Amino acid sequence: MLTKSSPISTQSNLFHSELFSQLDVKDPLIQLANTINWTVFDDAFEQHYSQDNGRPSKPIRLMVGLLLLKQLENLSDERVVLQFKRNLITNTSVATQTICQV
User: Fold this and answer.
1) Is residue 68 situated within a structural domain?
2) What's the whole-model pTM score?
3) What tens digit of pLDDT does each residue of 50-84 get?
4) What domain range is 65 assigned to?
5) Structural domain total, the chain
6) Backbone phi and psi for residue 25, each to the nearest 5 degrees, phi listed first
7) Which terminus of the chain, N or C, has fewer Cβ atoms within 10 Å?
8) Is 78 left (phi over 0), alpha (psi -120 to 50) or beta?
9) DSSP per residue over the chain, as a string?
10) Does 19 reside within a domain?
11) Which of 102, 99, 101, 79 shows the shortest CA–CA distance to 18?
């Protein structure tokens, strides 16, 4: 089942904007994430998800982003998840503008 985007509360926006303001916008992963049109992936893959049946999915951007990171850094499945959990820049570039959990 495709997970719908949920609105973010004002309080979490304040918290997240504080974190994002500390990120290096010149970091290659941040620059790459800003050049990718993520809606193309949403549009391409959403047809493969049921809208009302099954377990809610992880966001498509998260899955595509982790696959890109895995290929770019030549990481195993376990290492890419570990890097995602430990690194705010990775989390920001791979996920959305919210901090995600895998």
Assistant:
1) yes
2) 0.69
3) 888 888 888 888 899 999 999 999 999 999 988 88
4) 24-94
5) 1
6) -70, -10
7) N
8) alpha
9) -PPPP-PPPHHHHHHHHHHHTTS-TTSHHHHHHHHS-HHHHHHHHGGGS-SSSSSPPPPHHHHHHHHHHHHHHT--HHHHHHHHHH-HHHHHHHS-SS----
10) no
11) 99
